[in-house]
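Lecture notes, unit on binding sites. The following record was shown on slide 14. It pairs a sequence with pyridoxal-5'-phosphate.
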Amino acid sequence: MVQKATHLADTYKKFPVEIEAGKGSLVFDSNGKAYIDLGAQTGVNIFGSADDIWLSAVTEQAGKIPHISNSYISPPQISLSELLCERSGAEKVFFSNSGAEANECAVKAARKYSARKYPDGRHTVVTLQNSFHGRTISMLSATGQATFHRQFKPLTSGFEYVNPDCPEALYRLCGTGKICAVMIECVRGEGGVIPLPEAFAQAVKRVTTENDVLLICDEIQCGPGRCGRLFAYENYGLSPDIVTLAKGLGGGLPLGATLFFGKTADVLREGDHGSTFGGNACACAGAETVIRRLTDDVFSGVMQKSALVFGALEGAKGIKKVRGKGLMIGIETEQPSYEIAEKCAGRGVLLTTAKGCLRLLPALNIPESLLMRGIEIIKSVIAESV
Ligand SMILES: Cc1ncc(COP(=O)(O)O)c(C=O)c1O
């Protein structure tokens, strides 16, 4: 029997699994039953649950001082910001607590960049249809999906959505002189695990460069490391001006980061932005171990495991399509995905759904044998559902 969530706001549909503990890519319910975790708790536990290296950095920091106010110099923040800049080529980092906040910071900076340089009215941010950028009112507005907007109007103004199958729409919008930034996910996660079409990526590259429009890459779900490189945009040869991170960055604790490159490095000045918990010392200490471990070996492991999963699932009974990049994989099934995910949970495999498809976001270091054991169970549940 699982406990009833009587006093939790009813904002989430929950699988009937009461998770009590986790180690690596296994999690355990309150009866001690083990589950193969192929969702890594929505991609957050990027090196598995309670990973030893991450855990010792976090607990060591908690024992020293768990939180350092942003009014003082915080060694864990300094060292993580240096590492992120060294690995990405960025010059500055703003730390927050979540993906939505990292994106809010990116949009504020993009608007200020434009306001300093151009006449009023050049403040619109173009995002993709079917995108997802968070749940604050402004990030709902940035999200290009009407289902998320309903009943929450009025939304923040200044967002336009384009269909990534139609680069002409992007050219048209960026030619109006009203656009300050284009914000993209290189793989739209909540939108159904859909990689960006190559032609659109090339259009983004051209139009942002030619019009001094900033490129913001939302790597909250598709990065870091998940798509087989440190950042998913590297797969498209893009050079963003601003990059946002969250989920896997914290490795299990809440942490958001907004990375500023080149011409955006000096945009945010004293008093422009802030956060009480942003850049929490324990979260930063853990995140440093995450970024240090994202090496070429890990990336090639991600790509190898990805190829095994695609190979096992493509063309299997009850599966219409498998898509994604690296270890961000969507499975379109003939039968409703949520019911399949529920049955998988009953058979000891956890995964989530995204816009009508099954979604895999396993820990990047999941052992191949465990991953494939989980995939075989998913495959048989899908086949039985037909
Ligand atoms: C691409 C993307 N951006 C932003 C967010 C929002 O992140 P958070 O829930 O941490 O605010 C998410 C969360 O799923 C996401 O996938």
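Take-home: The longest strand covers residues 319-325.
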